[in-house]
C-alpha cells in the first residue's frame, strides 16, 4: 500500500515555499522527507503583494518573527482595501478588516445607519469604523486584546514585496530540513497501473521520485495539467479579466495602511504601498481593451516615477477540476486563480496547506482525504468567487462596454439571492464557513450602492433623536480613537524598518 | 407594513416560549394571542442545552429562579439511553496542532473506541453524579445545560410572556386565501393576526395552507412540526424553539413577507433539520436511514478512516457529541491525523496516562468532598461566587 513519506514540491514561488515551510514546520519532525525543485531560469510570477489577515496566523504558526519578516520584505501594514469608482465614477469606500460601529442590542450597526442615511448629520459608513478612520488618516497600531475596547474592532494584514517573501521562507524551510534542488523539470513519469506520478525528471537527467507531489509550478500546472490532464473550470463568464500589466513606482505622499483598487474602463488598477516603493498594476479584460491602452492607463495613473518597464501577465480565471488528483495536489496558481481584487490568492494557498495538514494522507485513508480536501477547497473557491462577482456586478457604471457587460450579466443564483436578501432589509446571508464574513459583505453592498429598502423594525421603533445621538457618539469615538494611533510610517520606522527603505528606490 | 399582531397555535412550551421570547426581544406594542390546543401528555422533564443560557439571560431567568421554579439540575451531558450520553465538554486536550482523539488513537490503536470516554471530564463527572461548574485549569473544558421540570419552566415562560390573550381552541378552523391565513376560528372567537406561529407538532395549521415541507409559508411559520421523540433526550425540543425564535427575530419580516426573507429562514431551518435527522439516525442506529443520509455518510466515512469529525455549515451538535455518538455506534477510526505523530511516542504515552489519572483523581477527590444526595432530589440552584453549590447532589 502507498506510504506518504517522501514529498516533492515542484515550484519555488510563494506557493512552493509556503508549502515547504508549512509542511516542514508542522510535520518535519514526523519523518517526512521534503524536497523542493525550482528553476531560476523560469523564475516566479513576482506579483501578489497584498494579503489578508489570515497570513499573520500562518507566519506565527511556523514561527516567523513579524518584525524580521516585515523588514526583509519591505512590508507595510494593511487595514483594508479602498475601492474607487466602482459603484459610480467618483465613489470611494473602504472594505475594512474590521467592524462598523459597536455591538448594540444584537442589531447590526448598518440598520441604525440606514434608518438615518438621509439625515444631513449622518456621515458615510466610513466614519463609523475605526480601521477605516485609521486608513483615512494614514495611522496604524496593532489592535488591542481587550475586547471591550474599540481598539479591538479590527485585524490587519501586510503588503509586501512578492519577490522577497519566497526567499525569506526558503531560509526558514531549509533550516527545518527541506532539500532544495535547482533545475528545470522536463518530464513526469507516471505509474502505468494507477496513474499516480512516480517521479519527475530534470533537464540534467536527474530523476526524483516521491510519494506525494505538490504542484506549485504557477499557471503552467506542469504536473496537474501537463502530466495528469486534470482539466480546468473556467469562470471567465463571471470574471472576464484575463490580463494584467504591472510596474512599481516611486512612493509619494503619506504611507497608507491600505491597498487601493480603482475601477478603470475595462478592469481596475491596484496600488500597493510598500516601504521602499509602490506596487501598481492594471487588471483588464483583453476582450474590451488593447494591451497598449491598458499599459498607458497604468502609466498615466502612477503616483510617481515609474521604476521599471511594465510587465504583462496573462491568466484565465477559474479552478482546476480536481485540486488533488491522483497523488498530486495543485496549490497556488497551478490550482486556480480568481483574480487579485480582494487579495485572496495567498489566502487560498494557505487554506490549501492547512487542509493538506489536516487531511495528510495515510495508506488507508487517502481516498477519503482526497475527496474531503477537494470538496472543502471547492467550497472556498466558490464562496470567494461570488464575493468577487459582487464587486463587478453591483455597479451603476455605463460608461464602457465592459461595465455594461458586467452590470447586466447573469450571475450565479446563489449571489442573486444574497443580494436580494440584503436589498430587502439589510440582512446578510449567514454561513459558518467561507472567507468573507458579514462586515465584508455589508461594506461592499453599501459601498456599491445596494441600499436596503428597509431596516430592522426594532430600530424603527426607537426615537429618531436616540438614533442620531448613537450615531454621533460613534462617529466622534472613531475619529478620536483613530487620532490616538501613531502615523503608519512612524510605527514602521520604529518597528520594522526595511534596509531598502533608507535607500532611494532604484 | 409593520407586524402588529401575532397568533400562536399550540400548547406547552412550544406555544409559550415564542410568546415570552418575542416579548423580550420586541417592544410590548405587539399584540400576542395564544390559541391553546388540547394538551397531549407532556414529558415531565425538559433538557436545556448549554446555549439555552443566552435565552435565559434574555428572559431574565437566573439560575436561582430556574432552581426554585423549574427544579433545575445542571447537566454536563444529555443522556440518550443507558449506553449513550452526549457530552457538553471536550475529549481530552489538544496538543501540537492535533485533536485529542488522534493522539489517543496513536497510542491505543486497538483499544475499543468507547474507552475514549475516560478522557471526557464532563462524562466522568456526570457518571459520578457530580457537578462542578467549570473544569479546573489544565483539564478538558466543558459547559453545562439543565434538566428542568417542564411544568415549572412553562410557568416561568407564562410569566415572562405577559399580556398574552390566552384562548382555548374549542375547534380550529383555518380560513385562508391564496396561501395566507386570513383568520382562525377557535370556537368562541375568530382570531386575526399579521403573523401566525404554528406551534403544533404535526404542523396542523401550516399543512392546511401549503403542502411544501418548508417551515415558513406566507404569514404562517411552523416551528416544531418535525418533532421526534429523541428531541426530548438530546435537548433538541427546547433548542429548536430557541433557534427558531432567534432566526425569526434576525429576519423579522413585515406584512409583505418578502420571499427573500422567507427563503433564507427556510434554508437555515432545513439545514438544521438535516443535522438533527443525521444525529437521530445515528443515535437510533437505524441502518437504513443512516445509509440514505449523505452528510451522515460523510461523517461516518471520515471518522472511520481517520477519526476526524467532518463539519458542515450550521452544525448543531459539537464535535464531542458526534464523537460520543459515533463511538456508541461502534464506529472506530482506522488511523489518525498525521499531526499526532509530532510528539515523541514515549512522552505522549506518559502524557495521556497522566491525563487519565488526573481525571480519575479529580472526580474521586470531588466525590470525597461532597455528600451525595439521592439522585431523585433536586438541589436548589444558588450562585455562590463562581461555584453553584447544592446542585445535582453536590452539597459542599
Ligand atoms: C496580476 C496578479 C496580481 C496578483 N496580486 C495578488 C495579491 O495582491 N495578493 C495575493 O494574495 N495574490 C496575488 N496574486 C497571486 C499571487 O501572485 C500568487 O498566488 C503567488 O505569487 C503564488 O504563485 P505561485 O507560487 O503559485 O506561482 P509562481 O510564482 O509562478 O511560481 C512558480 C514556480 O514554479 C517553478 N517552475 C515552473 N515550471 C517549472 C519547471 N518546468 N521546472 C522547475 N520549476 C518550474 C518556477 O520556477 C517558480 O519557482 C496575483 C497574481 C497576478 C497574476
Outline the structure in words.
Chain A has 506 residues and is of the alpha+beta class. Chain A has helices at 14-27, 54-61, 66-72, 109-115, 130-136, 162-175, 222-227, 291-300, 345-358, 366-393, 401-408, 413-425, 438-447, 457-460, 464-483, 488-495, 499-502, and strands at 6-10, 33-38, 76-78, 80-84, 92-96, 157-159, 179-182, 185-190, 197-202, 207-209, 212-215, 232-234, 243-249, 259-264, 267-273, 278-284, 311-314, 318-320, 324-325, 328-330, 336-337. Chain A has a seven-stranded mixed β-sheet with strand order 5-4-14-15-16-13-17. In chain A, strands 7-2-1-11-20-19 form a six-stranded mixed β-sheet. In chain A, strands 8-9-10 form a three-stranded antiparallel β-sheet. Chain A is globular, with a radius of gyration of 23 Å. The mean pLDDT of chain A is 95. Chain B is of the alpha/beta class. Chain B is 41% helix and 16% strand. Chain B is built from 14 helices and 16 strands. The longest helix of chain B is centred in the last third of the chain and has 26 residues, at 259-284. The termini of chain B are far apart. Chains A and B meet through helix 10, helix 12 and helix 14 of A and helix 10 and helix 12 of B. Flavin-adenine dinucleotide (FAD) binds at residues 10-16, 37-39, 42-45, 47-51, 162, 184-185, 216-218, 220, 222, 244, 281, 283, 313, 315, 332-334, 340, 343, 345-346, 349 of chain A.
Amino acid at each position: 500500500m502507498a506510504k506518504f513519506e517522501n514529498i516533492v514540491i515542484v515550484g519555488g514561488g510563494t506557493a512552493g515555499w509556503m508549502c515547504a515551510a508549512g509542511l516542514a514546520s508542522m510535520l518535519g519532525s514526523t519523518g517526512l522527507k521534503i524536497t523542493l525543485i525550482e528553476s531560476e531560469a523560469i523564475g516566479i510570477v513576482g506579483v501578489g503583494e497584498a494579503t489578508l489577515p489570515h497570513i499573520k496566523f500562518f507566519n506565527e504558526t511556523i514561527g516567523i518573527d513579524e518584525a524580521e519578516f516585515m523588514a526583509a520584505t519591505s512590508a507595510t501594514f494593511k487595514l483594508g482595501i479602498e475601492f474607487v469608482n466602482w459603484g459610480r465614477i467618483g465613489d470611494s469606500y473602504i472594505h475594512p478588516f474590521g467592524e462598523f460601529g459597536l455591538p448594540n442590542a444584537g442589531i447590526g450597526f448598518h440598520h441604525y445607519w440606514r434608518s438615518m442615511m438621509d439625515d444631513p448629520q449622518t456621515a458615510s459608513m466610513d466614519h463609523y469604523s475605526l480601521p477605516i478612520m485609521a486608513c483615512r488618516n494614514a495611522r496604524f497600531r496593532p489592535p488591542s486584546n481587550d475586547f471591550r475596547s474599540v481598539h479591538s474592532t479590527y485585524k490587519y494584514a501586510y503588503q509586501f514585496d512578492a519577490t522577497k517573501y519566497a526567499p525569506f521562507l526558503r531560509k526558514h524551510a531549509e533550516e527545518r530540513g527541506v532539500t532544495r534542488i535547482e533545475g528545470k523539470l522536463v518530464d513526469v513519469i507516471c505509474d502505468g497501473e494507477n496513474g499516480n506520478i512516480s517521479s519527475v525528471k530534470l533537464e540534467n537527467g536527474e530523476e526524483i521520485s516521491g510519494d506525494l507531489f505538490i504542484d506549485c509550478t504557477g499557471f503552467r500546472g506542469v504536473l496537474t495539467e501537463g502530466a495528469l490532464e486534470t482539466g480546468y473550470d473556467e469562470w471567465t463568464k463571471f470574471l472576464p479579466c484575463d490580463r494584467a500589466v504591472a510596474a512599481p513606482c516611486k512612493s509619494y505622499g503619506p504611507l497608507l495602511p491600505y491597498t487601493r483598487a480603482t475601477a478603470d474602463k475595462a478592469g481596475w488598477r491596484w496600488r500597493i504601498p510598500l516601504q521602499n516603493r509602490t506596487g501598481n498594476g492594471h487588471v483588464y479584460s483583453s476582450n474590451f481593451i488593447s494591451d497598449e491602452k491598458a499599459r498607458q492607463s497604468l502609466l498615466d495613473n502612477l503616483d510617481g516615477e515609474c521604476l521599471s518597464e511594465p510587465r504583462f501577465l496573462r491568466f484565465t480565471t477559474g479552478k482546476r477540476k480536481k485540486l488533488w488528483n491522483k497523488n498530486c495536489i495543485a496549490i497556488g496558481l497551478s490550482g486556480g486563480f480568481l483574480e487579485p481584487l480582494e487579495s485572496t490568492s495567498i489566502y487560498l494557498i494557505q487554506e490549501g496547506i492547512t487542509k493538506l495538514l489536516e487531511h495528510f494522507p495515510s495508506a488507508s485513508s487517502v481516498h477519503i482525504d482526497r475527496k474531503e480536501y477537494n470538496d472543502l477547497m471547492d467550497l472556498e473557491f466558490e464562496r470567494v468567487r461570488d464575493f468577487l462577482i459582487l464587486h463587478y456586478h453591483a455597479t451603476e457604471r455605463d460608461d464602457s462596454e465592459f461595465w455594461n457587460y458586467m452590470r447586466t450579466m447573469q450571475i450565479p443564483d446563489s449571489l442573486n439571492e444574497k443580494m436580494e436578501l440584503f436589498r430587502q432589509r439589510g440582512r446578510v446571508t449567514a454561513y459558518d464557513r467561507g472567507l468573507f464574513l458579514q462586515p465584508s459583505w455589508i461594506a461592499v453592498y453599501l459601498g456599491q450602492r445596494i441600499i436596503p429598502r428597509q431596516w430592522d423594525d426594532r430600530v424603527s421603533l426607537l426615537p429618531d433623536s436616540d438614533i442620531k445621538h448613537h450615531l454621533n457618539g460613534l462617529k466622534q469615538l472613531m475619529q478620536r480613537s483613530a487620532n490616538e494611533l501613531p502615523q503608519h510610517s512612524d510605527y514602521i520606522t520604529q518597528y520594522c524598518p526595511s534596509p531598502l527603505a533608507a535607500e532611494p528606490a532604484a | 407594513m409593520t407586524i402588529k399582531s401575532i397568533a400562536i397555535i399550540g400548547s406547552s412550551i412550544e406555544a409559550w416560549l415564542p410568546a415570552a421570547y418575542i416579548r423580550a426581544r420586541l417592544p410590548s406594542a405587539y399584540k400576542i394571542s395564544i390559541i391553546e390546543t388540547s394538551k397531549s401528555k407532556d414529558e415531565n422533564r425538559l433538557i436545556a442545552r448549554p446555549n439555552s443560557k443566552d435565552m435565559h439571560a434574555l428572559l431574565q431567568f437566573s439560575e436561582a429562579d430556574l432552581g426554585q421554579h423549574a427544579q433545575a439540575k445542571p447537566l454536563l451531558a444529555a443522556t440518550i439511553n443507558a449506553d449513550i450520553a452526549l457530552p457538553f465538554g471536550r475529549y481530552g486536550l489538544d496538543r501540537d496542532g492535533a485533536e485529542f482523539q488522534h493522539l489517543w488513537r496513536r497510542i491505543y490503536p486497538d483499544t475499543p473506541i468507547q474507552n475514549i470516554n475516560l478522557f471526557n471530564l464532563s462524562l466522568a463527572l456526570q457518571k459520578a453524579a457530580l457537578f462542578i461548574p467549570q473544569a479546573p485549569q489544565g483539564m478538558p473544558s466543558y459547559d453545562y445545560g439543565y434538566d428542568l421540570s417542564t411544568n415549572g419552566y412553562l410557568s416561568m415562560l407564562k410569566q415572562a410572556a405577559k399580556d398574552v390573550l390566552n384562548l382555548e381552541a374549542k375547534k380550529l378552523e383555518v380560513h385562508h386565501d391564496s396561501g395566507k391565513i386570513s383568520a382562525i376560528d377557535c370556537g368562541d372567537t375568530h382570531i386575526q393576526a399579521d403573523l401566525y406561529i404554528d406551534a403544533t407538532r404535526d404542523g396542523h395549521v401550516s399543512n392546511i395552507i401549503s403542502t411544501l415541507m418548508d417551515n415558513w409559508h406566507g404569514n404562517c411559520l411552523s416551528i416544531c412540526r418535525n418533532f421526534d421523540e429523541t428531541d426530548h433526550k438530546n435537548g433538541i425540543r427546547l433548542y429548536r424553539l430557541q433557534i427558531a425564535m432567534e432566526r425569526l427575530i434576525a429576519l423579522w419580516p413585515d406584512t409583505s413577507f418578502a420571499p427573500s426573507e422567507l427563503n433564507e429562514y427556510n434554508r437555515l431551518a432545513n439545514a438544521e433539520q438535516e443535522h438533527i435527522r443525521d444525529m437521530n439516525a445515528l443515535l437510533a442506529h437505524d441502518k437504513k436511514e443512516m445509509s440514505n443520509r449523505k452528510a451522515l455518510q460523510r461523517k461516518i466515512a471520515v471518522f472511520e478512516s481517520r477519526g476526524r469529525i467532518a463539519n458542515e455549515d450550521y452544525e448543531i451538535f459539537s464535535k464531542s457529541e458526534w464523537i460520543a455518538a459515533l463511538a456508541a455506534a461502534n464506529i472506530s477510526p482506522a488511523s489518525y491525523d498525521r499531526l499526532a505523530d509530532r510528539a515523541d511516542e514515549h512522552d505522549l504515552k506518559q502524557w495521556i496516562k497522566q491525563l487519565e489519572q488526573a481525571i480519575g483523581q479529580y472526580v474521586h477527590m470531588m466525590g470525597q468532598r461532597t455528600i451525595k444526595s439521592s439522585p431523585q432530589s433536586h438541589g436548589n440552584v444558588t450562585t455562590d461566587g463562581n461555584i453553584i453549590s447544592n446542585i445535582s447532589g453536590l452539597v459542599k
